[in-house]
Amino acid sequence: MRKTLLVSCFLIGGCSEPGPAVALSYWATDGAQNHKGVLTIHEHHACSGDVVVFSSSRIPQVGELTGIEPEQVLEYSGSGEIVRRWSVPINRYVQAVVGNAVLLPFAFERSIAISNDGTFEIVETPIQKDEPVNCPSAVLEEMPDSGYPRCHALSIDGEDAVRRIAYEGPCT
User: What is the model's pTM?
Assistant: First the structure.
């Protein structure tokens, strides 16, 4: 019952109490080593740049913490207008969008569901439909330095709503 309550509270607008800290990877720039919660900084295995493994009970927002830079997931309308943004760890793909949360792979059949303010919950991964689509020019303008832009039309199995998202694909 508590699990259902937490997930429900999260999906309709965010939980007021932070969850446990989770170690996730972000881009590291100057100053990353100065933050409590930094576990390691190392060179990325495929992309140029350094990665910081940072343990926190909330996903940092773009520009919030000097030296710790998340990537962004953008939700856009059928006309290509940006309607929502999430800051997310690097090297992840998007599994689904449910309510105000974007879901990324976490472990086994679990996802990390991240809200716009960076709060997150670990949830079961829903069955979803995923169709790669061409990225609208307005979306690509929001990702000028992207080497791996990805755009998808996502829907949860059994639901009619389609969510259009764009994100930086993982470096390989």
Answer: 0.83
